[in-house]
Amino acid sequence: MKTASSFLRPYSLLVAWLIALVGTAGSLVAEYGFGLTPCMLCWYQRIFLYPLVIILGVAAFRNDRKARGYVLPLSVLGSCVALYQYLEQKVPALRNAIRCTTGVPCSGHYINWLGFITIPFLSLIGFLAITALLLVRGES
What we know:
Layout: H1 4-8, H2 12-33, H3 40-62, H4 68-90, H5 119-137
Helix pairs in contact: 2-3, 2-5, 3-4, 4-5
């Protein structure tokens, strides 16, 4: 019987690239299609996400066995920023830790589906999925 990791391993770069592509497209549609202005922490997440579309696309095309060495730093740091912003939204004590001095407040909610699904939560899930896919793939 095949495990999920053995099934995903050959497609991990392609699936990770698709996740990065959907996340990038989603952020651009939210901003330019729906007029949702990104906050400072959203911009930091974009800084970590947008290059992954190109990097993972090239890595998937070349079947680069060393891709996780240069993808994981971006996905892990993006996860950290997304987790921090999500906690800032959901934990009132953290709302004053970093203040967005211009533009949209980082603790604001554009969406709040089911009481816990926000844009930073979706970003966190995307970054964690990319990280998991690269860890499942390994370097061999």
